[in-house]
Amino acid sequence: MGFAGKKKNKITKPLLWFVLIAVAVIQIFPLVWLVDFSLASSTEMFTNGLLVIPEKIQWGNYAKAFADGNFLLYLKNSILINGLAVVLVILVSIMAAFACRRMRWKLSGFVKTLLLMGMMIPIHATLLPNYKIYSQLGLTDTVWALLIPYVAFSLPQGLFLMTSFMESIPVELEEAAVMDGCGIYRIIFQIITPMLKSSIATVAIMTFLNNWNEFMMASTYLSSEKWKTLPFSVLEFTGEYSSNYAVQFAVMALTAAPAVIVYIILNKHITKGAAMGAVKG
Amino acid sequence: MKKLYSNKLVIFSLVLPGIIVFLFAILAPICLSVYYGFTDYSGMGAYSFIGIENYRQLVHDEAFWTSLKNSLLLAVGFICIQHPLALIVAAVLDKLGGKAEGFFRCVYFIPNVISVAVIAYLWKFIYNPDFGLLNNIIKVFGGKGDINWFSNETAIWAVLLVLIWHGFGWGMLIYYTGIKNIDPVLYEAAAIDGANQRQTFLKITLPLMKPVIQVNVTMAVISALKQMETVYLLTNGGPGNSTQFTANYLYQQAFKAFKYGYGNAIGVIFIIICLLATVFLNKVFEERDINPRRVKGAA
User: Fold this and answer.
1) What are phi and psi of A227, to 5 degrees?
2) How many domains does chain B have?
3) Cβ of A84: how many Cβ atoms within 10 Å?
4) pLDDT tens across A35-68, in order?
5) Does A6 score more than 70 pLDDT?
6) Which end of chain A is more exposed for a tag (fewer CB within 10 A), N or C?
C-alpha cells in the first residue's frame, strides 16, 4: 500500500483542523469521561459539570473491579480461546486455499463457494440451533462451544484472503520444489506459508478483532465461570454492584484496557492489517 | 507435477477440516432451524408439527416488521450520516501528513477495539437521566438536561447514535486506505491544471473511490441487518418493541418467550433476507461497474 510520498498541501485551513479535532473529541471524550468517573467516588458523580476532579483518587475502585470481576481468569480465557481460534483459522484456511486455488480437481470452485457462503450467514441466526446441538453433544460449558463457532465464522474471510494472496505467488517456485521431490504438505508448509506472512498477519488481526469482543455466543453456550471471556467482567459486574457506579466504571475501563493498550502499541500494523482485510474481504 | 497436484487423497485431506467446520457449525444449525421452524416446540418437552403456521404468524407480527424497519433506518443512518462524514474526514486526514495524521487515525479507531459490552454499558451511563454525560452537556449549554433518552420516541435514535458513533472509525479507515491507494500523480496533474481542493475532491477522489464506497455501503447495509449485540445490552428491543432488531427478536422469542420453534422460523427468514440482500447489492453494483469488486458481506 502506498502510504508514502504524497505532496503535502500547503493550505491547512483552520476549518479542516476544527473538523478533525471535533471528530476526535466526539470519538474519544466518552472514554475520557469513563476513566475520569472510574477514579471518583460514587457520590461525586452527581455533578452538573462534564468531568469531576475527585477529591481523592479512588484506586480502590480498580482493586475491587480487578478482584470481583474475575479479571485475570477471564483475560486468560480470552487470550487462550482467541489464540487457538487464530491458529486454527490460519491453518485450515491455508490448507483449503491451496487445495481450491492450486490443486486440480473438478469441485474446487464449488467447495470454495460453499465455504465462502459462511460470510453471508448471520451469526446470530445460528444461536438457537447451535445451543440445541451443543447441549445434545454435551459441549455446552466447554471450550469447544466457543472455539467451533469462532473458527467457523472467521474461516470464510480467512479463506477469501488467503486465496487472493496465494494468486500472487509464482507457480514456478512450486515446480522447482516438485522437481526436487517435495510432497504437497511440505510445499504448503515450507514454501507457501512463509511467503504468506503479511496475509497471515491480516487474517490473524481480523480473526482477533472479530472474536475478542464477542459475548452473545459465550453467554448462550456457557454457564459456569470456567471458560467465560473478558466481556463477562462487565456483564456480571453490573448486577453485583448495581448501586456502586464508580466501581462499574472501573471494571469497564479495566476490561477495555488490554485491547486499547495493545492497539496503541501496534496501531500501525493493526490499522494496516484491518484495512487490508476489510478492503479485500 | 500434474499427478501430484490432482492426488484426490491429498486434496481430500486438505479441504476436510474446512468442510467439517462448515457442516457442523453452519449447515447443520441451518437445517435444524428449518426443522424446528415447522414445529411449536417451546424449548422443553414434547412438540408437534404445525406446518407453515409459524411463518403465517410471522407475516402478521408487528414486532418483526418493526425490526426490519429499524434495520433499514440504521442502514440509512450509516449511509447518510456516518459514511459521508467518514469519507470527508478520511480525505482531510490524507492531506495532513506527519505525526498528526497517524495520531488522528489512531484516535478515530479506538472505539472499535473496545468490547461492545463496555460500549453499551458506557452509553447507558451517558444516557443516564441523573448523572449522564449527555444531559450534563445540555446543562452546560444552558438547557434543562432532564431528557429521558430511552423513552418510546427517542430510544431508537439513542440506539442509532451509539451504532453510528461506534462504527465510524471502521468506515473511516476503509475510506482512508482507499484514498491512500489513489495514484498521487493524478493529484499533481490536477494541481498543475489549477484545480482547487474542492474540485480535486469531487472530480478525482470521489470517482476513483467508487468501488471502495460500494464495498463500504454493502457492508454497512449487511451489518445493519445483522445488528444484535449493542441493542441487546442497551435496550433489549424496548421500550415495547420500538428498538427491536431481527436477531434480538428471534433470541427473545426462543429464550424469553419460550417459543423456540417460532424463533427458529424467524431465524430461517432472517438468513434468507441476509442472503438476498448480499446478492442484490452485489448485482446492483455489478451492473453499474465495469470492473466489479465482489463483496461477501461483513462477518
Assistant:
1) -115, 10
2) 1
3) 15
4) 988 888 777 777 777 777 777 777 878 888 888 8
5) no
6) N
Give B39's strand partners: B49
Sort residue B145 into left (φ over 0), alpha (ψ -120 to 50) or beta: left
**Chain segment A150-203, per-residue pLDDT in tens:** 999 999 989 988 988 888 888 888 888 888 888 888 888 888 888 888 889 989
Distance from CA of A59 to the nearest CA of B (A): 19
- The predicted-structure confidence for B206-254, as pLDDT tens digits, reads as follows 888 888 888 888 888 999 999 999 999 999 987 889 999 999 999 999 9
Which residues from chain A sit within 8 angstroms of residue B180, using beta carbons?
1-3
Nearest-angstrom CA–CA distance, A43 and A181: 75
CA dihedral B67, B73, B75, B76 (to 10 degrees): 170
With CB atoms and an 8 Å threshold, state whether A129 touches B105: no
Helices and strands in chain A: count of H runs, count of E runs: 14, 0
- Residue tagged 460500494 (cell numbers): B214
For residue B150, what is the domain's CATH number? 1.10.3720.10
Q: What is the DSSP letter of B39?
A: B
Q: Is the domain defined by A70-280 classed in CATH 1.10.3720.10?
A: yes
CA distances from B186 to B97, B176, B197, B198, B289 (A): 18, 17, 13, 15, 21
Q: What is the CA radius of gyration of chain B?
A: 24
Digit-coded pLDDT (tens) for B20-48: 999 998 999 999 999 999 998 888 888 88
Model pLDDT for residues B154-205, shown as the tens digit of each residue = 899 999 999 999 999 988 988 998 888 888 888 888 888 888 888 888 888 8
Phi, psi angle pair for B39, to nearest 5°: -120, 170
User: Contacts of residue B137 in chain A, CB cutoff 8 Å?
Assistant: 50
When scoring B7, B22, B118, B168 by the number of chain A Cβ atoms within 10 A, the one with the most, hence best to mutate, is B118
Q: Is residue B19 part of a domain?
A: no
Is B15 inside a domain boundary? no
Mean pLDDT in residue range A223-230? 89
CA distances from B223 to A127, B266, B292 (A): 17, 18, 21
In a domain, B20, yes or no: no
Select the residue of B11, B108, B176 nearest A99 (Cβ to Cβ).
B11
Please state the domain extents for chain A.
14-57, 70-280
Chain B, 29-88: which have a CB under 8 Å from a chain A CB?
29-30, 32-33, 36, 85, 88
pLDDT per residue as tens digits for the range B120-136: 999 998 998 877 888 88
Q: Output the pLDDT for position B150.
A: 86
> How does DSSP assign B206-252, residue by residue?
HHHTHHHHHHHHHHHHHHHHH--HHHHHHTTT-STTTT--HHHHHHH
